[in-house]
Every structure is written in structure tokens, then in C-alpha cells.
Amino acid sequence: MKANKHTQVKSKSQKWKDVRGKRCRPLITPSDLNSSPVVVRMVKEHQVAKKKKRLKKKAKPVSEPKLTPPKSECKKTHPQTNGSSSLSQDAEAEDVQDWKEYSQSILRNGMETSGDVEDIRMSRLEGEALHHCAQRDDRQNHAVLVLQKHQTLCFRGKCILTCLYGRVEVMGFTIEEGQKSYPLFSPASHCPLTIRAMETSHDVRDHRTDTSLILQEYLTPASRKKLLKKVTSTSSIILLEPMETPLTRFLSSFSHLGELFSPPASELMSAVLDTPLNGLGMIPLASNIEGLKISRSCKETLNSVVSACRGDIDGCAVVLVCGTKNVGKSTFIRNLINTALNHTAAVDYLEGDLGQTEFTPAGCLSLSTVTEPLLGPPFTHQNTPEHIIYFGQPSCESDMDRYLESLKSLFRQRPQSREMPIIINTMGWVKGFGLQLLVDIIRFLPVTHVVQLSHGGTTQCPALTPEYLRTAHGYQTHPPSQTALDEFTESHCPPRTYSHLSVQSEFQGVARQGTARHQRTNEHRELSLLAYLSQLQSPDPGPVRPLHSLTPYQVPYTAVALGVIHCEVAPTHALYAANASLVGLCCLAEKVASRGGPVLLSQAPVCPCVGFGVLRGIDTARGLYFLLTPVDPSTLRKVNCLLLGAISLPSCILTSQPGLEGETPYVTTDYSFDLSGAGKIRVFKGLMRPSQMGTQ
């Protein structure tokens, strides 16, 4: 008996020789991954390796002494679906173990074994298999990829995905044949995205004929013939196209963000080069990069909550997600929304996390209706929710009463008759006053499910079960409490219970803030704000226009009120504080009355916000504000208030102003925070001393 050609095995010494050769390659930086000289060099190395392989094309018998394991250590062979056989050997025999690992690596590259389903789901498309399962058409600048059932592709970069045949899953969302194309974003700031082929059946169809007709539109006859050899009745075929948007062009115009969509330094050695996908802005990753890891408890909770979102309970599902910082709340919520969108047309989302917002710049509380899947981090899907309240700070500790009132005000905007599910995000502040705020939110809103994320087998705060809430003290509420269901429902019914679901996060780096570039929370906030400002760019392809080259709106002093909501500022210094700053464009219920000068607010209002703008200049002589904003002019007519908060413009906006001569406006190094009063004054409203805690 002779081994099949694809199961030919190198001797151990030759294998280690190849490994040493790979490690001796010169270092590659992220910017080199899409560089043509590097790709050419990798192509040449790959061609030399293939030429050497053809010289050894003659199959070797399995009975050859170097490849045959000792008889006493070899168990019965098990047939595989590809017609070959897999040996089950003793792990103590080193040479036999090498044979086993190599044979399994071959089976993982696009072939299905008769083993456990969990092993099949972990199969990663990488290495040599990418050359056989992907074909690129340079004329149309796209690639077609064939994925076998449960096979995955983990990558960095960005692309547009279209499912041509079968169905695939990305971040919980299923993309099927016949659906529209979807943009995928996998930047270095977050966990890499994974495309997974789902189980599908085309028994009633002639898959050869169908796929051949589909591929005619996208590939040349030679490429189509190669790819059809890999198609089975359970395969999925996807079309991958490069993507360039005003967002990506604007971000790449800043030097420190030029490598945002390339693998970070820790993944450079795992980047798979010389594939048909590299030239499209995608860089596949080897299987040692895990991608998104979902624990068993997370899967069970997702199934339970999605069942409730599908209507398995009376009324609409109101799901509150809580947990400490860096435990995966935002990722869980994106997966939950995407999975729910497989079964329902829309999902409502109430943002309660001021520091890590999903659809707006930081410092906002908002209520959104989500109809499209979230296939990237927050900065890739910035939009204007239906209702926004600009709180102005990344934390609510300075004014917790205004925080709670803002959340309740947003929830009142949601019609009581609305049947679609709503998901509520909360802050990572789960101790002290933060825990009390969570207790209040659960009591104020008609919550049906509380999903509590933790790590390490322990909870970082008490389990927020219905039993715990019967005796817990909130910041504004105390037991026994009357729930705010009375406030949001017509009938005054007794408080109903809710389901408490626990999720143990098991991904690498849980509860620790990322230390690599672009992975810190302040950098995430900066990316979200830059993404919002990218809406000022033209949607048409072309060079990026810096903000100082755009024409601003002229807003009279008398038309709007100005408020500083994050700290105490003397009225004579208010205009200095607001100049060259980000402001929230808000709508006060009452009219603004002015006697000719600027109108200044003495208190922070709870009022609707329609978007944001950059106050790029103030003309005190003519009494004008110069405002840059992407908000539509018809909406701007309703704005009568500008709110200045602690969310500042990214420094790159001010320091990267090309075409200027002399000193850069608004930028100085001649400043010392050591001077008394040089820093801003922080005011904490509502916080009591420990001696006062028991007086109320």
C-alpha cells in the first residue's frame, strides 16, 4: 500500500530544517505586509518550495522504516472521509507523534475527519490550503474563497464580504446566499474577526452546476476550474472585495494610525503572507492566534436571551448586561445583537456606559434602533441614534443624579407598545456607588433578564439576583422599594421578577486593559471621535481634506446658549474654554433670550442632543461662533444650545494641520501644570462623606 500524494511526510530532520529556515527570514513590519517587494519575495520562496516538492513527487510506501511506527505502539487505523487513514499512536513515541501531528495538520486544512464536531469547528484555513481554496481575479480586484463545513478564516484588515453559495457566520450574524454585501472590519485595536462556514445542505441541488454558474461571473475559466475541485455539497463560497471608505481614508491620514488595520507586533509571526487575499487588504492569521473565544456559559446565555428576544416570553425582552471593566461586555452585546438580528428585524439599544459607547463619541447616553449587524468595533459603525443626551464626561461619578435622570428620560422616549427587544449596556463600575447605581437601574427599568459577566470563577460584585435586590440599597432607592414599572406601564402591578444569568469570561487577557498600541481605552475613545469627524469628508474618492480647510457655519451669539457641564468655569473665561473644542449640539425646551452678548448656562441641563461639532473659532467683535459639524442643516435649525464637556479633541487633530506656516494654532508647549490653579477644578455632586452615609 502506498500513501496518497498529499500525505507524504518529511523526515524529522528535514522538518526541523524547514523550521529553522522560516525563523531565519528577516523581520517584517506591519507596513510591509501589503508591500509588493515583500510579497514578491514570499512568492519566490513559495515557488522554490513547490519546485522541491515536485522533485519528490513519487509516493513513498507507508512501510518504509523511517515512517512506520513500532508495531507495539500502533493501534487500529480509522478511516477518514477523504479516503486516507489516521493512526492513533502512543504519545510517548516521539517520531510517531511527529507523524500524528503532521497528518492531523493536513486533515485540518480543508478536510473533514470523522472525529468530534468540536474539533471540526476549530479547523482553521491557513497556509498551503489558502492557495487551493482561494482564487483571485486581478482584473476585477476581488477573490473567491471556498470554505468547508465548520472551517474558519481569522484575519486582520478590512473587506466587503458577499456570500455566493451556502452560508457563513461572523460575530454571531449569519450571512446567506442571496443577501446583500456586508463590510468587515478587523483592526489591531480589537480581537481579530473570524469567518466561519456554517453547516448547510444542498442535497436537492446539483452543487457542481450551480457553483459553476455562480463563479462564471467572478473568475476566469482556469481559476474557476481549480476552485470547483474544492466544492462539495456542504461548502460555502464567499466573495471578498477591498474596501475604502471616508472613515478608513481619514484615519489613515494620521501617521500614528497608518497601521491600524495591520496585525500588531505580537501577531506578525502569525501573519500568513503570499495568499490571494493579501492584496485585498486582508491578512490571514495562523491557528496560534485564537480569535474571539466564547465560553460555554456565554453560549448558553446567548441562546437563552435570543430565545426571549424571539418572543418566547410575554412582552418584550429587556436585557441588562453588567460586569466589571475589561470583562467583555461590549463584545458580548455585539454578539447578542447580531444573533438576535438573525431572528428579528431590529433590536433597541440603550447606552449606559459613558466611557465606552457603541454608536457615539464618549460621554453620551443614547437610545438606538439597530437594524444592521455590528461587524467591527464601535468606531466602525458610528451613527446618530434616535435619542441622545450629552452627559459630557466618560464617568458619572461627579453627578450621579443627572446620570440616572438621563437614563430614565431616554427610556421614556421608547413607546410602551414597542415589542422588539431592548438591550441595556452599563458601566464597568460595580463597586461602591457603582453597585448602587446598578441596583437603581434594575429597579427603575422593567428588566426581564440580567446578564452578569465575571471572570476567574468569582464575581467581582454580588450576584444581582432578584433575592439580592429585595434587601439591597441603591443610590436613590432603598428596600422595600416600589419598582419604576409603575412609571413605564399603564397598570400599577406588583414588581415582577427577572432572570439572572451568569457568564464566565475565559478569553486571554480578561480583566486587563490592553497595553499594545491602539488597545487602550483612551485610544478607543479617540478612534470613535475621529470616526465621527470623518463624516465631514466627501463620500467620493479623493484626498483627505484637513478640518481647517473646511468651511464652517457662522452661528450668532444670540441664537444659542453656551454651557460648560464638566467643571466650574468663570463666565469671563467661558469663551476661552470653548474655543477649539468639541461641543454637543442640543435643543433646550425654552427659547434662548439674549441681550447681545453670549448666553451662558449656570446648570447642566438634561436635554436632547442631535450631534456634535468643533467650535473652530470665535469672533468676539461680530459675536459669531464658527462651527464645523456633519449634522444636516435642517436639523441644525432646532439647535439652541452648545454644551462643552470633558471630551476633548484628539491631539492629532490640532497637531496634524498640513499647509500651515508659522506656529500651529491652539498648540503650545509653554505651559506648566505646576502653577497653582493651572488644572481644571473637579466638582463631585451628590457624593457624601462616610460620616454622612447613615443620616438619610
Task: Quickly list its features.
696 residues, alpha+beta, Jelly Rolls, Rossmann fold, Elongation Factor Tu (Ef-tu), domain 3, nine-stranded antiparallel beta sheet, seven-stranded mixed beta sheet, 25 strands, 25% helix, globular, disordered N terminus, nucleus, transferase, rRNA processing, NOL9_N, ATP binding
How do you describe this structure in short?
By secondary structure, this protein is α+β, with helices and mostly antiparallel strands.
Give the topology.
Elements: H1 12-23, H2 36-55, E1 78-79, E2 85-86, H3 94-108, H4 117-121, H5 129-133, E3 134-137, E4 142-147, E5 152-165, E6 167-170, E7 173-176, E8 182-186, E9 193-197, H6 207-215, H7 221-228, E10 236-241, H8 246-252, E11 282-284, H9 296-312, E12 318-323, H10 329-341, E13 347-351, E14 364-370, E15 387-390, H11 400-412, E16 422-425, H12 433-444, E17 449-455, H13 466-469, H14 485-488, E18 499-505, H15 521-533, E19 553-556, E20 561-564, H16 574-578, E21 581-586, E22 599-600, E23 609-619, E24 624-628, H17 633-636, E25 641-644, H18 651-655
Parallel strand pairs: 12-16, 12-17, 13-16, 17-18, 20-22, 20-25
Antiparallel strand pairs: 1-2, 3-4, 4-10, 5-8, 5-9, 5-10, 5-11, 6-7, 6-9, 13-14, 14-15, 19-24, 21-23, 21-25, 23-24
Helix pairs in contact: 9-10, 11-12
Account of the 3D structure:
Residues 549-650 form the NOL9 C-terminal domain. Keywords: ATP-binding, Kinase, Nucleotide-binding, Nucleus, rRNA processing, Transferase. It holds the Pfam family NOL9_C. The protein is α+β, with helices and mostly antiparallel strands and 696 residues long. Among the domains are: 128-284, Clp1, DNA binding domain (Jelly Rolls, Sandwich); 296-479 and 495-504, Rossmann fold (3-Layer(aba) Sandwich); 546-653, Pre-mRNA cleavage complex subunit Clp1, C-terminal domain (Elongation Factor Tu (Ef-tu), domain 3, Beta Barrel). It is built from 18 helices and 25 strands. Strands 3, 4, 5, 6, 7, 8, 9, 10 and 11 form a nine-stranded antiparallel beta sheet that branches. A seven-stranded mixed beta sheet has the order 15-14-13-16-12-17-18, with helices on both faces. The longest helix is centred in the first third of the chain and has 20 residues, at 36-55. It is globular, with a radius of gyration of 29 Å. The termini are far apart.
